[in-house]
Design goal:
It comes from Streptomyces lunalinharesii. With 115 residues, this protein is α+β, with helices and mostly antiparallel strands. It is 17% helix and 50% strand.
Length: 115
């Protein structure tokens, strides 16, 4: 399983304030859909953190996102092992295919691939 990046997701009602604060540490806004904003390190764009008010289409806000090369293979492997799928495999309007799964620590993980 090839992992492209891992991004912590922070539930927040203060997206603008977060952007200013993390900007002081060298982060720049690379995505903003109004309900989720992702910041990346200016000198290393794979170092990222996301802030979200709530997830637009899922019942819960994930604790982290893991981008994989093949989301369908990840989904099949986790289902086969009996993992709890919190949000089904879905093609989202913003260009990702994703699902949410609960890890052994009770954390919700957004597993995704870009279209």
């Amino acid at each position: 399983m090839y992992v492209r990046r891992i991004v912590p997701n922070v539930q927040s009602e203060t997206l603008e304030e977060s952007a200013r604060f993390y900007g002081l540490l060298g982060f720049e806004e690379v995505m903003n859909h109004g309900w989720i904003m992702t910041l990346a390190a200016a000198d290393n764009p794979t170092v990222q953190v996301s802030f979200m008010t709530d997830d637009k289409t899922a019942p819960v806000t994930p604790d982290m996102s893991i981008e994989v090369a093949d989301v369908d293979a990840a989904y099949a492997a986790l289902r086969e092992q009996g993992a709890e799928i919190v949000h089904p495999l879905t093609d989202e309007e913003w260009g990702v295919r994703r699902f949410f799964v609960r890890d052994p620590n009770g954390r919700v993980v957004n597993v995704l691939s870009h279209a």
